[in-house]
Amino acid sequence: MLCAVYRSPKKEQTYLFVKQRDDFSDVPAPLMSTFGTPQLVTLVNLATKDKLAQADIEKVKTNLSEQGYYLQLPPPKEDLLAEHKAMQKQQQEQN
After folding, report:
1. Helix%, strand%, coil% for the chain, nearest 5
2. Is 77 exposed, middle or buried (0-12, 13-18, 19+ CB in 10 A)?
3. Is the dihedral of CA 21, 19, 72, 11 positive or negative?
4. % of residues, the chain, pLDDT over 70
5. What confidence tens digit (pLDDT) does each residue in 9-50 have?
6. Who's near 86: CB < 8 A, 6+ residues apart?
7. 22, 29, 34, 78, 89 from 26: Cα distances, Å
8. How far is residue 57 CA from its own chain's centroid?
9. Given a cut of 80, is residue 93 above it in pLDDT?
């Protein structure tokens, strides 16, 4: 399964996978508006891949087959201060 991967010029670390290069007919108009003008990153043959860097390859394949596109959003940002406070609270409760 060959697909094209595009990056968003508006949203950092946001990628759109489509079944055919430059064919965005399956992508909803509001999503395209938010995404911005897609910038081609690469063409990927998913049949030869076991995994992708930041996306579940099976989910990508399923979404491409069922809805014609897959949207990869950036990973959630770490809130180290909140984690630290939670650990401190847990330690206080244990004592």
Report:
1. 40, 20, 40
2. exposed
3. positive
4. 99
5. 999 889 999 999 999 999 999 999 999 999 999 998 888 888
6. none
7. 11, 9, 15, 33, 48
8. 11
9. yes
Burial 6-38 (b: 16+ CB within 10 A, else e): bbbeeeeebbbbbbeeeebeebeeeeeeebeeb
Tell me the whole-structure pTM to 2 decimals: 0.76
68 contacts 18 by C-beta, under 8 angstroms: yes
Q: Are 18 and 63 in contact (CB under 8 A)?
A: no
Compute the distance between CA of residue 2 and CA of residue 61 in angstroms, rounded to an integer. Answer: 10
- Name the maximum alpha-carbon separation found in the chain: 60
